[in-house]
Structure formats: structure tokens, C-alpha cells
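Exam revision sheet. Question 4 asks you to relate a sequence to its structure. Input first:
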Amino acid sequence: MVKKGIVVGVLVGGLLGMGVAAAEELPSLYRGIRPLGMGGAFITLSDDENAMFFNPAGLNDVSGFGGVGLINPLVEVSKNTMGFYQDLSDLDTKNQQKVIDFLNERVGERQHVRAALLPNFYMHNFAIAGLGQATVDMEIRDRGANPTMPTHVRLDTGVMASGAFGFFDQMFQIGVTGKFVQRQGVNKTYSAVDIVNDTFDPIDDADKAGKKSDFALDIGTKVNFKSFLKPSVALVVQNITDLDFEELGEIPQQVNIGASINPDFWILKTTFAVEIDDLTKNVEVDDDLYKRLHLGAEFRFPMILAVRAGVNGGYLTAGLGIDFWILSLSYATYAEEIGAFSGQRSDRRHVAQLSLGF
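Answer key, C-alpha cells:
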């Protein structure tokens, strides 16, 4: 077996069905490309399939039939990983010293790949979806004669359904999402010796691992005020009772709050939003406020174009969406804080999605 192919398989194989959660990130189940472009500030705007993961109350803002996503592959790769793969293609992975040198040159780098499919249907006050998501995270450590590579592989599959209702002429909205998720994966640290060994296969290790599943609810509220600026405020409790996959990770219950204004300028529809996640600090990774702060803006032009920008945990984000009715293309770039506090250590990522639906 060619070891180069196996190591590449850890990264590319993740795109085909395996996933991971990184220890230093604030955990989440699924983040769509539109919210990522807006810095994650989305709970006051949740008027599409992303409402099932951000704020189901936003489905009350959908007018009639919303849309159907039939095939919508999303691929996310960190900036480090693009270079990692390029260099790996030229590496003789049967030579242990060359593998050691290769790893030593990249000590401290985070490698990240995520892929997802979210077939969905949404309309006024209702949405349903199936989730298949894969993420692979690696980080090379211990510079020297025997560098190590902690590797986390995860596969999440699940179903979710959301319902919403509006009161007082849609001024006050409330929504609920129920989600059942099954996770399979592995946490394992590999060495240079493992990489050159014929038995090194993290994908196979994950395939043989057990599965964990859990169910949780989200309850969201949203208030729309009638004025020129169309302000909105929202409060969401996510993952009630926690999504707990035991040794494969936990997505704790958290309380998120946000506000936005949504003025129209002639043909241009806009949103400017702010959001703070995990107000009660149930996520025990750290308690830095700025990692939980999100700022975002979206500019929606007539027919096909939307431009997005924001700040996620202190780092700039940007996004672009082009909608050709049954075919849409989206791109976003954002940075994730993987250190203990905002500004310490970022991982810049690029996300692209092709969606076929109507």
C-alpha cells in the first residue's frame, strides 16, 4: 500500500464521509456557507434552510414556498491544508526520515477538511432536512526525532425538522427544531513510524469504531419591529440537554442572543447583524467573549447576487452567492480561533458550495 495515498486519504477521504471536531473550536453541528460569510451572525436572519441550525423562528419570515435543496455539496478546506496536500504529493512516504522531516517542518499547523450534504425542504413555518457531514482535523506536534500527529475523524449523519409560528401580525415569532444525530469516528495520535507502516489507516480505524447517537431540541424566538430600519432581536436556546456523543465529543446546550437592522435601499435589501453565542458559558473550552462575538452584513441585489461580510471571533469573513434559479454557487472565507482567546491563533478556511434545487 502506498503510504502517500493513505495520508492523502485521511484528508480527501474525509470529504467522502468521515468527520472530526477540533478541541479548541467552539463546537457546532453544521454551519452553512451563507452564515459563515456573515461572520456567523445569523439568528435574526434565519429565513432559509439554515434556520434549522441557527433559529427556527426565522421560518415564519419565509413567504409561502421557500425552496428545495436536492444536491448541495459543501467543501471546506483550511489554508494550511491546501499547501500540506501539495507538498505531500512530492513526498516519499516509504522513507521514515523524510516523513519525520516533513512533519517537523509543519509542527503547529492545523489541517482541516470538512464536507457536507444537506438535502432539505423549507417553506413558511416548516423545514425538514437530512445531514451527512464529514470533518478531518490534524495537528502536528512534538518537533524532533518522533513528531506526532493527533488525528480526529468524525462522521455525522442525522435528520432534523423545524416548525415555527408568528403572533401579532408576525411581530413575535417562535420556533422549535428537533434533531437526531449519529456520530462515528476516532481520536488517535499517530507517529512517523505509524505513517510508514502498512497498518496506518485512520479511515479504516474510524470505520471500525463504534457509533454514538443523541437527540436534542432548539427553541428560538424572534421579534420584528416595524420601522424603516426593520430592526429584529432574537434569543435561541440550542442543543437542549446537549448533543452528547461521549468520547466522540459533545455539543453543549447554549444560549445565543442577537440583533439586526434590515433596511431597503431602492433595489438593494440589506442586513446588519450582531450576535453573541453561549451567554451562559456552557462550552467549557474557554470563556473568551470575543470568540463568541459575531458581526455580519448581507447585501442582496435583485435576482441573482448576494454579497456578505463580517467578523467572526475577531477575524474578517467574506462571502458571495450567485443564484441561477435551479443552480446556485456560493463561496465564503472565514478564520476560526483555535487558541484560548480571540487573536491568539487562527485557522483561515475557504468554503465553496454548489447547489441544485429550486
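Marking note for examiners. Confidence is low (pLDDT under 50) at residues 1-23.
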